[in-house]
Amino acid sequence: MSYDFDWSSIPGALPFLWDGMKVSLEITATAIVVGIVWGTLLALMRLSPVKPLSWFAAGYVNLFRSIPLVMVLLWFFLIVPRLLAGVLGLPPGSDARLASAMLGFALFESAYYAEIIRAGIQSVPQGQVAAALALGMSYGQAMRHVVLPQAFRNMVPLLLTQAIILFQDTSLVYVSALADFFGAAYKVGDRDGRLVELLLFAGAVYFVICYAASLLVRQLRKKVAT
Amino acid sequence: MISIRNVSKHYGSFQVLSDCSTEVGHGEVIVVCGPSGSGKSTLIKCVNGLEPFQQGEIVVDGIAVGDPKTDLPKLRAHVGMVFQHFELFPHMSITDNLCIAQEKVLGRSHEEAVAKGMKLLDRVGLKAHAGKHPGELSGGQQQRVAIARALAMDPICMLFDEPTSALDPEMINEVLDVMVELAREGMTMMVVTHEMGFARKVAHRVVFMDQGRIVEDAPKEEFFGTPRSERAQQFLAKILHH
């Protein structure tokens, strides 16, 4: 009843797997950048005294945090290609899977980043805002020059931890048959009948990358704390 | 210079300020004292609009603070304020702390702002610390930097909200010395403090508050000589007889 491991299909598949890794990293990077920018705006809206803005942000965050990511990805996979085709006049059937995956991730992750950033902004003492305002700064200037720099400094470890989770979550794009790293490994394994080996290999790669990154974050956390 | 007329403020049903009125003339130094919770910090924060108030009127240099049409940032740029907890910006060097508002609010060039900042830093005796961050300075030094930061904006008056309350006793005097010097140069000052030595030295008038009301508003000699209200007598007895 022993299973004969055969790793021979991996070396030849490395270029294909690397292409998949590039897709995973691309989605991760886009989601981080958009997530932080849009997340900051959402956090500011949520903390704004203007009620409709704050309601919108709260609704957005609660909505995305209450539905499974895989569902969001599927919806975007079903809707976005058509939308893009309509807007950009793409021929029907052209491949917008990557764009829809990026958009889905970015909008979903923004909800999580918004909450991290909101907590970061609230961690800056009220007196700092008062001091900035007392010097004649507008609310916007106080945010930009005084509050946000301190908030982000406190948040860096949390934002990076979220980025690591995000990188792992990119494997969910397999539902749209997009060849990210996980999808690529699955395809190769399926083709060669070596699914177990390929998935073990993919798991090991995810582990090494994420564990190394989390060690770095731990180092950074110590540095920020001092 | 500062005119406070019948100001009242409440949080919900809790009355923080009741019908407060006083004046600070040009070049005058007013000390505001009173037991904790008496509303003195709230009152001074109303003067530059950091705290809103519901009734009454505050006019600073001819500008009504409570008027929704008033450009508060513009007014605040010329009303210096020093806080109990210093509130230097911890992510910036001392130099940047001194320059940021000069540049972003007054539109001064960086060179001009640095020159002004260094002059004032020298004045509070901390020129050697220009490159450090606030966390590397003692409380007394941070508060002196905070005073220099406010002065860099060329304020028409200065508000001090318990500037020595968060300091260790041995650091209180270095801050008071700077304030005394400022008062003697003719700066208009409104100072919330329990430092009665400072009041005796430079104050023109002392305002005593209790439970959100101005109970006493008298020239310093009169206040220390024969306070009229029983509450003020008790308060003075408590803080002077140690």
- Name the chain pair with the biggest interface and residue counts per chain: A-B, 18 and 27 residues
Q: Approximately what portion of the residues of chain A adopt beta-strand conformation? A: under 5%
Q: Could you give the order of strands across the largest sheet of chain B?
A: 6-7-8-3-9-10
Q: What percent strand of chain B?
A: 15-25%
Structural class of chain B: alpha/beta
**Backbone CA Rg of chain A:** 21 Å
Average the pLDDT over all residues of chain A and give the rounded result.
89
Cα radius of gyration of chain B in angstroms? 18 Å
Supply the number of structural domains of chain A: 1
Number of distinct beta strands of chain A = 0
Explain this structure.
The complex is a heterodimer of chains A (226) and B (242). With 226 residues, chain A is an all-alpha fold. Chain A contains eight helices and no strands. Chain A has one domain: MetI-like fold. Chain A starts with 8 loop residues before the first helix and ends with a helix. Chain B is an alpha/beta fold and 242 residues long. Chain B has nine helices and ten strands. In chain B, a hairpin with a 2-residue loop joins β1 and β2. The chains are: A mainly alpha (226), B alpha/beta (242). Chain A binds chain B through residues 125, 127-128, 130-138, 141, 145-146, 149-150, 153, and chain B through 45, 48, 50, 72-74, 76-81, 83, 85, 87-91, 100-101, 104-106, 149-150, 153.
